[in-house]
Every structure is written in C-alpha cells, then in structure tokens.
Amino acid sequence: MSRLSFDEKQFYLDNKPIQILSGAIHYFRVVPEYWHDRLMKLKQCGFNTVETVTCWNQHEKQEGSFDFQGILDIGRFIDEAARVGLYVILRPGPYTCAEMSMGGLPYWLLKDPEIKIRCNNEPFLKKVRAYYHELFRIIRPRLIENGGNIIAVQIENEYGSFGDDREYLEKIQEIYEEEQVSCLMFTSDGPGYFMLSGGTLEGVLATVNFGSNPKDNFNLLRQFRNDQPQMCMEYWNGWFDHWYEQHHERESGETADVFEEMVSAGHSVNLYMFHGGTNFGLLNGANYDEHIQPVVTSYDYNCPVSECGDLTDKYYEIHDRLEKIFNKKLPITALNSEKKAYGKLEFTYKADLFDNLDKLAAPIDSRAPLSFEEMNLGSGIAVYTTEFEGPFEELELEIDGLADRASVYIDDRLQGIKEATGKRWDQVQFGLCFGEKAQVKIVVEDMGRVNYGGHIFDKKGICRGVRIANRYHFGWKTYPIDLSDITRISYKQINKNIESCKPGFYKALLDIDTVKDTFIKPIGFSKGFIWINGFNIGRFYNTAGPQKTLYVPAPLLRTGENVIEILELDECIRPEVVFVDKEEL
What we know:
Helix 1 (35-45) packs parallel to helix 3 (74-84) and helix 8 (252-264) packs parallel to helix 9. This protein is 18% helix and 31% strand. The relative contact order is 0.12. The protein is an alpha+beta fold and 585 residues long. The longest helix has 18 residues, at 122-139. The strands form seven sheets. It has an eight-stranded parallel barrel with strand order 4-5-6-7-8-9-10-11, surrounded by five helices. The chain contains ten helices and 34 strands.
C-alpha cells in the first residue's frame, strides 16, 4: 500500500491531506555544487516537491556501461532534496522527452533491427530492464515506503502522443513491480482525447500536461478519470528555444494567474520548468517539422529561476500568490550568485582539425559512407574523407540522407555547407580533368537527435550516400569523434596567417583571482563547442541565434589559470571571446 494515496477529490500522505506543489529541476542540467541552491529556492518559493526526469542516454551512453557519478549522481540529488525538505516525483521513462537528445533514449537502440522502441517488443524491454535494474538499485531505498522522500513514479511519458500499446505500458509497470518500486505510479499526457486515450492505464492515476485553460483541460481529464484528484504534471510556464528562433518569454503575471487558479481550486501542480538549467555538452535534442529544429544550449525556459540561478519576476509573482493563497509568510534567504565580467580573451593557440584526426579517433574504412550508428558514435562529429579522380565535368556534389549538417571541403578549402534545418543548402560544384585528383572531406555534425514524435527513429551522419550528379562515390575513411576527450590534440602558436575557414580547436588561458559565475560570448567565432577546463559547456551558433552567450557556472572555474578551448566548425573571424556578467539569450 502506497503512503501517497488519493480519493476522488484529493491526495493523502500517511492519511493526511496533501496538495502537491512541485517544480521541475533536472539534476543533469545543473552542476552538483548548485543543487542545494536551486532546491532551496524551490522550497522557499512555497513548493513541497521537486520533479525530475532521468536520462538513460547519459547513464548508459554505451550499452552495459553505466554512469551515476558527478552530475549524473541522481541519488545524491534526491538526498539533497530530502535535506532541504522536499518530496520527489520521479519520471524515469524510459522515454522522457525533456528536449534532450532522442528523448533520453540511448542511440544504440537504433543499431539493432529487432528493437522496436516504445512498444511491447521483448528486445527493447530487455534493454529497459537492464537499465532499470541499475537505476532502481539507487532509487529503491529512497522511496517513501522505504524511509526516503520519493512519493510517486511515472510510467513512461506522454505515451499517448506516440502510441497506443497498453500492453507495453503494463510491461513497464510490471518491471517497476519486479524492481520493488512500491510507491504510487501515474501517467501523464497532453490535453487531447487521442493523447489521454492512448497514454492512460486502467487503475493508474492519470495526470494532464498543459500551459493554459486549466478548467477545460481538467474537465477533459475528468472524462477519463472522475474518481481521482486533478493534477497538472507539466504546467508549461515558459518554453524552450530552437536555433534560428527568437527567445521565448511568457509574461510573469499571466503565468502566475493560471497557476493561482489551479492552486486556489485545490488542484496539484508541477511547474515545468521551475529551473531549466543548461544542455551541457551534446545533451540537447531537436524537434522536427518538415526540417530538423535543434534546441539551443540554454534550457532557461523563461523559468522562475533562470538558467544561472537568478530569482526572476516570475519567481516573485508565484511566491507572492502562494503567500496569499495559504496566508503564510514564506521568507526568502537564498540569493542570486555574484556574476563577474572577466573581459576580452584572445586565443593564442590553434590545432587544425584535419591535422589531428588520428589523435581524436581511430579511422574506419568502408565502401559507402557509414551512419553514426554504424560507427558506434552516439553524438559528436564525423569527418568523412575520400579521393575523387577525373575526368568529369563541372557537376553538383550531393549528400543523400544527411543528418544534420555537413561542411564540404575540397583540397582542404571550404566549398559549402548543407544543413537539414532548411535554412542553408549550398551548391557544391566541381570538375576534374584527366589525371587530376581531389581530396574531399565532409565534416558532419550531429546537432541533436529528435526528441519527440515519429522522427526519434532518425539516424545521424550520412545515411545513404554521396554522389556526383547521379553517380555514387565509394571508398571512404571516416573518423567518428565523440568530443569526450580532446586532451591529445597538438596546439601550435597562432600566427597572422591563420586560415579562418578551416575547422580547428583554439586554446587560451584565462587567469583570474576570484571565481564567480560568468557568461562567455564567442564574438569572433561562428559555430562550434566550448570547453572550460575540459568540461564541455555546450554548443554556440552565432550566425543562427538567438543565444549569444553560454553560461559558465563558477564551480567549473578555478583561481589562477583556466584553460578555455573552442572547436570552430565554420569560420573564425578573429580568435577572441569576451566574458560578460549578463546572459544574452
């Protein structure tokens, strides 16, 4: 019997009425040193619960190798929530969406043709069981039934937006029971008949996700469940950004009005997100609407607590409404972190990407170009190299089945960029005479795996082939680079003859006497990744926007010398960045 129970009107914890007021914070989007701060800000705003999803694709990047350390130490995060005085709602998927790559599913599921994801497919469920066995070993002692603070666990996530295989949902529930997950279980789905009909389970608490119109959406939920309390599991109080878009904002007062309407009526609510954090490294996902729409590095989400942990107007609006509703003073002692503008930094070292390929990855020979999955590459970049031999007329070089972005170099000179976003698809034409040869390199970047809808099945890299006119080219050597370790590359002093359109790594040393939160603005660069003392803080894309700065949490810095590294994939206009004290999203 779960300690969290309910009747047709409300929830009970140990037989005492409880209204669940929750906010979403994802442990893997916040450096561990700041978990206490973010959780304390949630508690002091007037909430009693924190919600988090898990990230299978980070915990098991390669099959059978599990990681629950550092920023992935979910047990430590849950314990910190307990110390602060918060309950936990856990949403372990296996699919979790959350705008992260492949919706939290590991890429290697796509390698096995026998695996059919998110349905009653035994090869898929076998992988889920193995992951859950490791995950729930950490979770089980932290369930409220076992003296912990986890009060509820979700079955799958918004399944009705994807499928209607109830046998599959029942299998996930059975795995939970096998792993002795004895707390309350629930489902959550979007506000539509087909979503709720496909994603709910008989006898299991159903919740609904929406951003407005609570009265109508709760009435819809009642048509499916009239014997339970109403809960919005995702109240979308902001939104995420794609490259090429404007930064999303939602007015604070209007956000608080909808929130107050639900809370005043006695409904339970989970604010998605309360604090969004950052898509560090290659975590970000993408949407798909005719073209791929990659999510930016910042997961600020226009939240009550901003990406860098600041209390926003939205925070104070919600805090004040909760004080009014419950007629209770909620003191705020948590402070915003001090920000530091360290100023301009010039890069003094460079390492050409093409000169360092053997230091970054072992090459793979193949007749036709290989997809990322065929090369066991989950995310990152792949450099496809080959040689063309004449004669042939001036003809178009085409890439079939490209995901997501390719930069084409002929004899190490950039000839064009092709991007599956629909924003850029340069024509690349060349011809060769008798006896002439040309070295062709194609740098393909995975910009984020699709995280929602049917396109989560998509594979990365060059998935069909490269051709000149109608003739496919064979004979390739490819370097699959996951960007997890760049310590072996060889830097050289930058001179005035730097080739700005050649991809490469840049290094500079930042000497500081005080460590504070800051933001790096790569003003002289176009597109790529940034590392702070070996930690990949994410992608930048100045020529697309909207995000112009990347958040650098103070715990990633150190007093004295700091190593700043950038991989530029397009063009370095001038090798410099500036550290500022305010974000530009």
